[in-house]
Amino acid sequence: MSAAELPALLTGRDGRPHPFSLPPGALGDAAAARLRREADEWLAPQFRELVNVTAEPFIQAIADLAVPRMVFGRVILLGDAAFLPRPHTAGGAAKAASNALALAQALVQEDLRIDARLGHWETLQLRDGRALTERGRWMGDRIMGLQAA
Asked: How many CB atoms lie under 10 A from the CB of residue 8?
């Protein structure tokens, strides 16, 4: 599916456009049939079966979120507020926990001022967040057949 096709797919059976997702029951019959055809073509048997037995499928657009900064004085962004990885990375909860653990470890370092501790923490978390975001993009391209193994 191309980005140009997304607005039509996110238009419900009632003709109302939705910006990011379509709830269960809103997907039109033609789009549901296409979803099932593409599931049969692209997905592993277990996921194919899941799609085919779902009476009212829903649609959720997948988007990347990556911030350029996580520290703003003594206010910070953690977890999905800073980096929203694609679902196929299975990294959201682990990333948030990693952010929090690294923050706790940074804050107990008594040899540095708090601003320096947060700056060091931010550098490492930005690196890790960008890496997870890029990995998710790469995985998505592989899943969609846009990139060779």
From this structure: 12
